[in-house]
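Hi L.,

As promised, Anti-sigma factor antagonist:
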Amino acid sequence: MHIRGDHAELVVGGRLDVRSAADARTVLHTAIDDGVGDLVLDLSELDSWDATGLGVIMGAHRRAGRYGRRLVLRGVPPQMQRLLVATRLHRILAIEGGIGVESLPRV
């Protein structure tokens, strides 16, 4: 997993899973704590995530809210969009451009 960017926009690539969760959490918390306004999390380079990775995203979402910020997901890959819809988290998280639920294949 790699994360690059600053306190306004981060690009996440590779796998966000149990092995990378602690590092990702640290980077996200620092970006949230040090910035103002929306924090855009670009997931277009993300290969996969597991439940732990999704938990990191949700934790960052909650932390951003406590700091008066908003976590905005950008470039969410289709397989991850399906997971967000299945868990109904697409209704909670800010997703740039939204998710076209109708266009996602059924699982």
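The chain has three helices and five strands.

Thanks again for sending the construct details.

K.
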